[in-house]
Amino acid sequence: MNAPLRHADKNFAPLIRQQNLIDGRWVDADSSATFDVTDPATGEVIATVPNSGAAETRRAIDAAHAAFPAYAAMPLGERVALMRKLHQVILDNLEPLAAMMTAEQGKPLAEAQAEVASSAAYVLWFAEEARRADGAVIPSPVAGRKLMTTRHPVGVVAAITPWNFPSSMLARKLGPALAAGCTVVIKPASATPLSALVWGHLAEQCGFPPGVVNIVTGSARAIGAEITSNPKVRKITFTGSTEIGKQLLAEASGTVKRMSMELGGNAPFMVFDDADIEAAIDGALIAKFRNAGQTCICTNRLFIQSGIYDRFVEAFSARVAALKVAPGNEDGAEQGPLVDAQALTKIEAMVADALAKGGTLVTGGAAHERGGLFFQPTVIADATPDMRVTTEEIFGPLAPIYRFETEDDVIAAANDTEFGLACYAYTKDMARMFRLQDKMEYGLIGINEVLIVMPEIPFGGLKESGLGKEGSWQGIDDYLETKYTCIGGL
Ligand code: NAP
Quick check: CB of 244 below 6 Å from ligand 1? Predict the structure, then answer.
């Protein structure tokens, strides 16, 4: 039974769903077990959702499998119309959806609003891309034959999503899957299930048939094991840590599924002597402190050229120290809480490690006086390669700053990581911009700009940061099979 709402006074209360969605029905876990969803700013319980496992997941996969033939055969115009409705209903609910996200995830409300708008934009983009998912007629090298390719939805897609962008990471998966004609089983992050469960409610409202969108919350290990081993799942799309991504790749090999992986990052942010320093500082603040530093494309390492190093450290740190740390729904909040106590402990340990290895604490460095999961926006100068912050994804509001001398040095240092998701550079030298484009081993390169993500671009990492692209015309490709047909005897 749907538990009573604890936030009946909140504008998002009518959107809260506290059950799994399987085959068009909202249902509890078989065992009736639940777990709490809490507000990281206050610790308050917002909702309880099912603690499900393999059996519920199997039923969700069966439902998606049964719904697939009819949904795949739905005329494209009807499918696109459903997608357009979904786009509109997200925009119509933007305010409460954003408030709900801030309540369960902690990010400032303005960031949550931008994320919901971005989710809607991805849905619309893929609705439009579905109309262009065409095949080809291939010129035949021999007489009497016609050679053609046609494209078809891959089948049941399982989508596993993280807590840091609980809506837009799902939009990039659900958007292309639904547009291509696939049916879906979603396993959202346990910290932020509400922003995923609501998609089930919105999809129902738009008229997507039962079984097309299924959502199961609960044990990651049990749900994941069912998804990876079940032959009815033809594709897994995962956004999360590299560690879990590798595990899923290994587990799914037994049933040879399509795999898309959006994994961890270790983004360098390079500022050259010739850069517009003010613009670089503006960019660094966003690239480092957005979502309290809990972003896969967040700056992990700031490399500043020696000629402007001292000026940059001083001016950047002053701006960092002035950031407003507050619950995401408070006016003017710029940095919310961290997601959980483990994240806070990790940042504390990283600060201690960096200081023990010779780093200079310029600002912050400790839990915030607000208490709970708030941490001070932190800058550590004189960072060195032997520090944990150099090799590990920080995922928090800690900016380590490294000094560099030459372009070759910084490119080598920036590329010296197994990750290859995003990198940033500030320079006015046009020739250098093109050298960076060639030499940086990253899937996303921002030069004099940090807000580089939009539906039109192919988002995805190189090296151990992932497989495949989300967004752009490439984003729907992974949800389509290409069949080749040869008609002979003509
Ligand atoms: P995570 O621990 O890897 O979890 C991601 C998702 O996988 C969650 O839904 C989690 O469920 C689930 N999961 C955990 N163990 C699993 C298992 N054994 N089988 C199946 N699913 C399992 O990552 P996170 O902490 O949520 O997210 C942060 C990470 O995501 C960072 O590394 C970040 O860089 C990465 N990320 C990458 C991108 C990108 O586009 N490249 C975007 C955003 C985030 P539970 O929540 O129930 O554990």
Answer: yes
